Amino acid sequence: MIGSYDIAISVLYILGIVAIGLWAGLKKKKVVEGTSSNEYFLAGKSLKWPMIGLALFATNISCIHLVSLAQSGFDTGLLNGNFEWMAAFTLILLALFFVPFYLKSKVATLPDFLEKRYNRACRDWLAIVSIVSAIVIHIAFSFLAGGIVLKTLFGVNMYVSVVVIALLTGLYTIIGGLRAVVITESIQTIVLLTGAVVITVICFQNVGGWDAMTATLQQTNSLDKLSMLRGSGDKSGMPWYAVFLGYPVLGIWYWCADQTIVQRVLGAKDENHARVGSLFCGFIKILPVFIFVLPGLMAYVLAQKGMFDISSLQTVDATGKTITETKGIYTLMITQLVPTGLVGILVAALLSGLMSQISGALNSIATLASFDLYKRFNPAASDRKLVSVGKVSAAVALVVSISLLPLLNRYESLFNGLNDVIAHIAPPITTVFILGIFWKNASAKAAQLTLWIGSLLGVVVFAVNKLLPDTVISNIPFMMMAFYLFVACMFMQIVFSFIYPVKHTPESDALYWRSPMDPLRGATWKGIGNYKFLSLLLLGIMCLLYWLYQ
Questions:
Q1: Which residues cross the membrane (predicted)?
Q2: Which end of the chain is flanked by fewer CB atoms within 10 Å, N or C?
């Protein structure tokens, strides 16, 4: 439980964000009578690179990342930091290869892009899958992590706290649209990073510095916790080859083909702002390993030295074995290690992650429901009607996501649960996007069948894993399962493309790269803002970091 001073800081922060969100959304309405769909869903195509980068990061980093990455740091060390660092590579792909086509095709949604490149059936399928994934992955899991933390800190019923946060976040998101979302996300990113840095510094001071930490890890035979890349026999089930084979399947879908994330790029002022904004996010993604994962590892070291009490997280099972429920590690770190006055900042950081993730997902659901579903059956719908449908859809999504909490709470690790779901959703979508922009012979019918059969295959494999836990399939780590499903989907689309040859329209014929050098042509900013230079710089930094922490 935390003190009244810290509670006051947390409450004032929430009210401040809601007020800023409402102001940002309503301000534009005073300038232009009514609210156009372009303004509401894409911020009038006015976003510049700093805001795009910060908003991408804020939409990605939620309360579940702060809670679960600290948990993973305590349990397995830096290993799950791969999900953060590998993201930088996929953000380079987004900036170089995907952004130009998204902006060139002038789409409001990624399903709309699939229709231009393939056909209407592909658009419909991706719209439905994107809405479902946004509800489950971006909202429900975030609610669950936030509810667990708020219950521990404030003693409030998990569902009560989740409903209150949902209503407040939904208020400014549904009223203000993407402009309100991006402005509040930019603020929330700064608060989130500030809070994460605060707890990292406190943990670092308590542990006695890097040398003292490594000495303790060596004494407890846990030095491998500092390694990002593990051997094939590692008990984590995530060896180095699973990271490099499996993550790109998850990452390309998440960063390059997921509406909730890419919508910030679609609202860019121009191509250079979109590309540099994506790369800016890539640079920020270096930080989570050091400010989200590492504090959890330092908490483990403090526990080994008797300076961090985890007894409240421990229970004894029927066999007499002590089990530590590490979901609550981050909350325990706040209550035990952070002095009064700073706790409020840490809680504000947690709320920032929670609210930014939810607001971004709600805006994307509204966009998908309006443009890709409602407008199909009502092509003459007015902008005002599209905005209204989007608002109603976002409200319904909030209700559905809250109802999923009991089911998702069964995962021992929320972060692994989140990525387990993604691993079975991503492969067919990643496949059709990669082949769509890199292979001119990828046909519409082949993409359609790959999405249908690949998605069904993913559902079947996921069900087998949960219902029959002792099968050969259930023993395959989710990262490798993602890769195997991806290979199957690639094989499917290539074979189907020969069975059903491509018939390009003038529009689709312009939406694939003729050569690998084509993305690097065209006007670009001069100097340090050149996206080519920034891509090489980010690539070099990531290779150096992996060499240092291999």
A1: 6-26, 47-71, 83-103, 124-150, 156-178, 190-208, 238-257, 278-303, 342-365, 386-409, 421-439, 446-464, 476-500, 531-549
A2: N
Residue-wise pLDDT tens digits, 446-457: 999 999 999 999
| Greatest Cα pair distance in the chain | 70
Per-residue pLDDT tens over the stretch 461-511? 988 887 777 777 777 888 999 999 999 999 999 999 999 999 999 888 988
Which tops the pLDDT comparison, 37 or 237? 237
Candidates 389, 20, 371, 67; CA nearest to 188 is 20
Token reading at 441: 């012979």
User: In the 3-class helix/strand/coil scheme, how is 340-401 assigned residue by residue?
Assistant: CCCHHHHHHHHHHHHHHHHHHHHHHHHHHHHHHHHHHHCCCCCHHHHHHHHHHHHHHHHHHH
Residue ranges covered by each domain of the chain = 4-518+527-548
How far apart CA 334 and CA 195 sit, in angstroms, is 10
DSSP string, 224-235: GGG-SS--TT-T
Alpha-carbon distance of 429 to 257, in angstroms, equals 7
Helices and strands, number each (H, E), in the chain: 25, 2
Beta strands, E only, 394-483: none
CATH class of the 4-518+527-548 domain in this structure: mainly alpha
Instruction: Output phi, psi for 323, to 5 deg.
Output: -115, 130
User: Is residue 233 classed exposed, middle or buried when 0-12, 13-18 and 19+ CB atoms within 10 A define those classes?
Assistant: exposed
Q: How confident is the model at residue 39 (pLDDT cuts 50, 70, 90)?
A: low
Taking Cα atoms as reference points, which of 375, 366, 462, 360 lies closest to residue 123? 375
